[in-house]
Amino acid sequence: MLRLEEFMDIQKLYQDGVSVAEIARRTGRDRKTVRKYLAQPPRPYERRPSGWKIDGYRAYLRERWEQGVQNAQRLFGEIQKRGYFGCYTQVKKVVRPWREEEQERAFVRFETAPGEQSQMDWGHFGNWAGARLYAFALTLCYSRMRYVEFTRRQDGETLLNCLVHAFHYLGGVTASLLTDNMKTVVVERVEGQPQWNPRFLDFAAYYGFVPRVCHPYRPQTKGKIEATIRYLRTSFWPGLRFESLADLNRQAFQWCEEVNRRVHATTRAIPIERWPQEHLLPIAGRADYDTSYVSHRQVSKDCLLSYGGNRYSVPYSHAGKTGTVREALDSGVLRVFHQQDCIAEHHLAAGKGEMVIESAHYGSLPRRRRPPHSTGKTAVPELTPGPGVGLHHAVPLVEVRSLASYEEVAHVATV
Q1: 302 Cβ partners below 8 Å, 6+ apart?
Q2: Using H for helix, E for strand and C for coil, what is the string for the chain?
Q3: pLDDT, tens only, 26-51
């Protein structure tokens, strides 16, 4: 490329009447080049950018980005394992054009005092093993401590069970708990006022926190838990492999332990270091709230009740009565109550159409008298295994006699 100084020299020589051939000889340029720059000015000088250390990893980063891994910190860690020795800033510059900026309404960030508020929500993570997979998440607003648990259900009992687990993990409860208008929390709104789910309200009274719900269609009200769900989708979920729900929750617990020890992007502090300042309402020393599934079942005459597609026995004295069935979510045990007394306890059947019977439930039940085995009738011979068994009628028993008996009868007949 011709430098600006050379261009000015060519222009001056040409204006002085020097021929193109002579200008080419003096400058050492080809005559075609001289004519080219006499016809048009040179382009501005552009510095050729030097290569980046991350250039060799752009294809891998793009592939992982399209697979759903859109967390720059995680991508940085992955290419470090592949030999990248550059800085994190280059990763952010590479992914910045790929990230679609969300158009959001401006709002004022709301921060709470220690122990004042926590936020919870659900996230849907596709299907697994023929059923939907959900993630329950809870975040302490001040310290940003996070808790995550995956479930197969999203009903009220599962919600309360996850909350109990979160309270144990975090060591207590905040003064208030913010959520959206899910049916397991708010049954309906009457003139803008929430009508609480009775069981959730009883749960809140038991642990001493005040339930709060955000305004409809305003997810930014609970932006801290929304950010936790987004972070879970981009940092934990992509490329994850697990063998069972227990394995998935084990990995989710490890992820919580890791992120609670990282510097938070908003507070610029480590959540686990701010955690002691929360001063949560303690839950130690009290029994966990009973989150069992509760239903009522009629006991049939054969001392069995139906539950979950299977039948379970109860003591015969309760036949024809109604029992209260409680299924504890964590234990896999079914308990049957009559008023306040537990009258039966069974492990849940694994399949469908099974009968789980405890013989002691029939121990003193009067039985009908059956005729004794010796009834005076000819006993039916027992068939032994062999060819043709079951294909024909049993051969009747025939008395075996000697031939002499038939000779005597024949002799008498001839007389």
Answers
A1: 319
A2: CCCHHHHHHHHHHHHCCCCHHHHHHHHCCCHHHHHHHHHCCCCCCCCCCCCCCCHHHHHHHHHHHHCCCCCHHHHHHHHHHCCCCCCHHHHHHHHHHHCCCCCCCCCCCCCCCCCCEEEEEEEEEEEECCEEEEEEEEEECCCCCEEEEEECCCCHHHHHHHHHHHHHHHCCECCEEEECCCCCCEEEEECCEEEECHHHHHHHHHHCCEEEECCCCCHHHHHHHHHHHHHHHHHHCCCCCCCCHHHHHHHHHHHHHHHCCCCCCCCCCCHHHHHHHHCCECCCCCCCCCCCEEEEEECCCCCEEEECCEEEECCHHHCCCEEEEEECCCCCEEEEEECCEEEEEEECCCCCCCEECCHHHHCCCCCCCCCCCCCCCCCCCCCCCCCCCCCCCCCCCCCCCCHHHHHHHHHHHHC
A3: 888 888 887 887 776 655 555 555 67
CA atoms within 13 A of residue 101's CA, in its CB half-sphere: 5
% of the chain surpassing 70 pLDDT:
79
Q: What is the dihedral of CA 233, 236, 239, 242, to 10 degrees?
A: -110
Strand partners, 345: 335
pLDDT of residue 43: 57
Name the pTM for this structure.
Answer: 0.63
Q: From CA 144, how far away is CA 267, in angstroms rounded?
A: 8
176 near 208, Cβ under 8 Å?
A: no
Taking CA atoms, 121 is separated from 116, 203, 296, in Å, by 18, 17, 30
Per-residue pLDDT tens over the stretch 332-354: 899 999 888 899 999 999 888 89
Single out the residue of 153, 113, 118 nearest to residue 136, CA to CA.
153
CA distance 61 to 109: 33
d(CA 63, CA 254): 26
Residue 350: exposed, middle, or buried by beta-carbon count in 10 A (0-12, 13-18, 19+)? exposed
Q: Which residue has the tokens 């038991």?
A: 206
